[in-house]
Structure formats: C-alpha cells, structure tokens
Amino acid sequence: MALALAVVAFRRIASRRTRGRGLAIAGAVLGVVGTVALVVGVTVAVLTVMATRPLPADVPAARDARAQQLVTGNCVLTVPDDGPVDTVRVVPCAEPHEAQVVTEFTFAPDAVWPGQQSADARVARACVLDADEVAAGVRTVTWSPTERSWADGDRVGLCLAVLDGGGITGSFLDRTAQVP
C-alpha cells in the first residue's frame, strides 16, 4: 500500500512540479521495509509451525525431526547419547532402526513444572516392556520435557523401546518387530 501511494505521489510531483519528493522517497522506502518485514514474519511463522507439527506414526521416508514432533509409533534410527535431545533421524519402521516410540505420557496443560527428576519418573512409569522384549535385550529410554521445553509449552514425555546396536525391523506396537 505504501509503495502504491509513493508511486502516485511521484507522478503528481512530476506532473505538477511541486515539492514533496523527499516524502515520496521516504514512503517508498518504508513500503519496501514493511513488505520485507511482512514476508520475513510470515516465513518464520510457517517454518515454526512446520518444525512443531507432529509426524505421522510411520513416516513414508527417512527424515530429521525435532523430538517434540515424535509420536507413538515413530521409529528412530539411532538414540542420541544421554542429555537433552533436539533432533533425531526418523525412519520407516520397515527399515532397520535402534528404537521406537512405544508410549507417550502427557502432563496436564496447566501443570506446574514438577522438577526434572519427577518429570523423568512420571514418564518412566509409562514405559513397560513385555517379557519377550526384555528377553531379546530390549530396554526402555525415556525422554521427558526439560525445564526449558516445559516453559515453551512442551508437556509430552516419550518412552522408547531400544535395542542397543539397532537392527530392529517392524514395529513393537503391532508385534511385527524383528530383533536380530
């Protein structure tokens, strides 16, 4: 809008030979700055939504994803070392993988930060393997919200069934998991 008004002002100034060229230039500059700011703002908003949107339970192709995007059923190529988890490689469950998200624990949206140990314990209680999985060497790993992610609204903890060294194909959820 500001650009269009600046063009009209330039035409009137040229046809009537009046003053105001500086204000027309200022209007054009502000119009360009406003347009760029709008494009940047929309781009950031779209990228933020894309980065936090939950994945489908079984992805069609391997991809990197933020831990907050994972849902029950997602298969993870490798489990990162202990500590905060940001990005992981998610693969179709038919491909070899090291872990699968088998349960989620959702804290109440209005819950108060319980502390890291308490959050970890609550998520861990949601992790249960059957005797066959334990006998095959499968263990559980829990990913709980951190105080920082909690402040950003993260209220979901994940339980992963993990086979160190990987090689799992299939899904623990539908009992098609093949453990080498």
List keywords for this structure.
2 domains, single chain, 6-stranded antiparallel β-sheet, 180 residues
Q: How many angstroms does the end-to-end distance come to?
A: 64 Å
Overall morphology:
elongated
Number of helices: 5
* H-E string: HHEEEEHHEHE
Average residue-wise pLDDT: 86
Largest sheet: 6 strands, antiparallel
The fraction of residues assigned to DSSP E strands is: 15-25%
Whole-angstrom Rg: 26 Å
Strand order of the largest sheet: 1-3-2-4-6-5
Structural class: alpha+beta
Total number of domains: 2
Strand runs, count: 6
Q: Which consecutive residue ranges, at least 5 long each, have pLDDT under 50?
A: none
Overview of this protein structure:
This protein has 180 residues and is an alpha+beta fold. The model has no long low-confidence stretch (mean pLDDT 86). It has helices spanning 2-16, 21-52, 116-124, 131-135, 147-151; strands spanning 63-66, 75-76, 87-91, 99-106, 139-143, 156-162. A six-stranded antiparallel β-sheet has the order 1-3-2-4-6-5. The protein has two domains: 2-52; 63-162, no CATH class.
